[in-house]
Amino acid sequence: MVKIIAIREHPEYLDEAVDYFSSKWGIERQIYEASITDSLQTELPTPRWYLMLEDSEIIGSYGLIENDFMIRKDLTPWLCALYVEKSKRQQGLGGKLLEHARIEASKLGFSDVYLCTDHEHYYEQYNWQFLGLSESEFDGLTRIYQISSLIK
């Protein structure tokens, strides 16, 4: 059975989650550890981190963070670190994570969610709207998407 959990509500996954995010994105473990640890206690709406589990195995993930290294500081929150294990792709699990993120952002009081990516034609199929290209702090221009988090 597949389920999505908030690490904030399941702190027993902290170390495993930090290792997972770091291994999938090639970002230093300490960066994820600081943010995920912060998410366990903060009174602010972000950061928040989530895992998709099949039984007890992590098969996907995402985070909601204040800013995903983008120059556009006026946009928040950002969906980041969306990942589905290669062996589990083409089963609609990425779409489930995206919808979960939209609903969680709404619960946290946000009216919209943003993401940056180099992928084209993926997010559009889940009703994300391409806003245009924007500068990131590291990689030059990247594609920016937005979706309403308001539950209809």
Automatic annotation (TrEMBL):
Domain of life: Bacteria
InterPro entries reported for this sequence: Acyl_CoA_acyltransferase (IPR016181), GNAT_dom (IPR000182), NAA80 (IPR039840)
GO molecular function: acetyl-CoA binding; N-acetyltransferase activity
Keyword Transferase applies: yes
SUPFAM superfamilies: Acyl-CoA N-acyltransferases (Nat) (SSF55729)
Keyword field: Transferase
PROSITE patterns: GNAT
Domain N-acetyltransferase: 5-152
Cellular-component GO terms for this entry: cytoplasm
PANTHER family: N-ACETYLTRANSFERASE 6 (PTHR13538), N-ALPHA-ACETYLTRANSFERASE 80 (PTHR13538:SF4)
Name the record gives this protein: GNAT family N-acetyltransferase
Record organism: Pseudolactococcus laudensis
